[in-house]
Amino acid sequence: MVHILSFAALASAAFASVTATPTRRAMAVAEQRKVPGSFARAGKPDAETTLNLRVALKQKDMQGLEKALYGVSTPGSSLYGQHLSLEEVTSFAGPTEESVNAVTQWLQENGVTDITPSGAFNDWISFSIPVFKADELLDTNFEDFVHIETGDRLVRTLQYSIPQDLMQHVDLVHPTTAFIKPLVKTPVMSAPVAGTANVTERALGAPSSCNSVVTPACLQSLYGIPATPAIQSSNILGVSGFINQWAQTADLRTFLTALRPDMSSATTFTLQSIDGGVNPQGANSAGIEANLDIQYTVGLATGVPTVFISVGENNSDGVSGFIDIIDTLNAEPAPPQVLTTSYGFNEGDLGSTLATRMCNGYTTLGARGVSLLFSSGDGGVSGSQSQSCTNFVPTFPGGCPSITSVGATQGVDEVAADLSTGGFSNVFSRPDYQSSVVTTYLNALGSTNSGKFNANGRGFPDVAAQGENVEIELLALVPSLLVLFSLINDRLIAAGKPVLGFLNPFLYANPQAFFDITSGSNPGCGTNGFPARSGWDPVTGLGSPNFAALLSAAGL
Questions:
Q1: Do the annotations mark residue 517 as ligand-binding?
Q2: Residues 372 and 459 in one domain
Q3: Helix (H/G/I), strand (E/B), else coil: 527
Q4: pLDDT computed for residue 469 by the predictor
């Protein structure tokens, strides 16, 4: 049995060894960066301003956990489908006793008393400290920065240090050098484009009216999504909500009445609150993205229990609650089998260390059998939102190899939507599961866009689905692909088989289960971006899904 460290006992032991006048330790720079172009310096904060910081402790064996993740997720592996338990994951992702002791002692000898373990595996140490003490502790200079476009302010630093003898115990101190732009989600529309594919090549089709307005019936026709209700109550689909985007039960009722009359209009969802998240009802509380996500998950994953996870603003994780939601789900004995998120960041805003640490959190969930799907972004090759740029801007979590990134298509014949973000990570290397198809694409691409992206990085998106002209009870757009995997999970559970879990090795092993998208591109940064081509491409991934083929690939 895995022993969970008693943080209080360890902290007490560490405190006992603290001397009255500790010797100043030799310091080493942990992270540094330049001022991001979207932020400007705004002076020095008041010395007594409280900072809520977290130390990310080194995790015991993330390489071992990654190996275990691929073992349980790769078809043909002797371990396929044998998802890890919370206890087994903890044995990989938890910190060592030595790391807890070392960091606790350092904080206490510098007068920090507000020390709290955090994270699903006690792999973070949280503490509060005034700016002047943080400057001393980290040998740094915290400053005020303002986001030029929105006026939002952050207290951050461009460089910080930790004791040299702690480098082996600490991944990062956060939030320090991460400059996260405010999360936004605004409708982005482009006119449908005629494709080169035809309905007979697809074997499935939809009426031409779906070129103008995409409804549940369009998606059912295009991808073969069944209307047969799911029956397994243990099969949960999670929809994450951020930035006060709230889903309306009245709008869902109207949506189902109009567009899924075969379903009960009383079908609804449950609510889970994180960081003080709420879900108020009423016309003034309706959120475009939240309504879209809920209406198309409930309205297409017929009968699958759906939970709306509302992440509030009562958080200090520095990334709008993205760390807190994953920590919360990692700590649950039975997290949702599928989680969808329609938000993300530009990878460079986080920095490589924080991006890697957050990706580790997705790895732990994936190893436990959770399928994580994230929208790739709405800015083409210019990032999560359209912006001026020279080099292409990868997004996060899109570049994390442990999640499934979803791009966008449009039109009945399906071409790449030009807003579909895709490209190559500057942080994460290319995983084995996509090595062959990405190499094929890059060879065909030749010198196009040379020098504007990292040709050795993890390519994304992995798959795509309709993301334009989607009809909801308000207005919206975003791919609605995750429902297929929830419906497949329902049938796997009914057959006594394990759920799909981390999807990518399964998806890349079965390219025949997707409709290949070969037209369109994702322009940005003054270029045409990447062109869609036969096979995988960094606009639409492997293509859009064929439910019957995916079901067959899953052995059903």
A1: yes
A2: yes
A3: strand
A4: 60
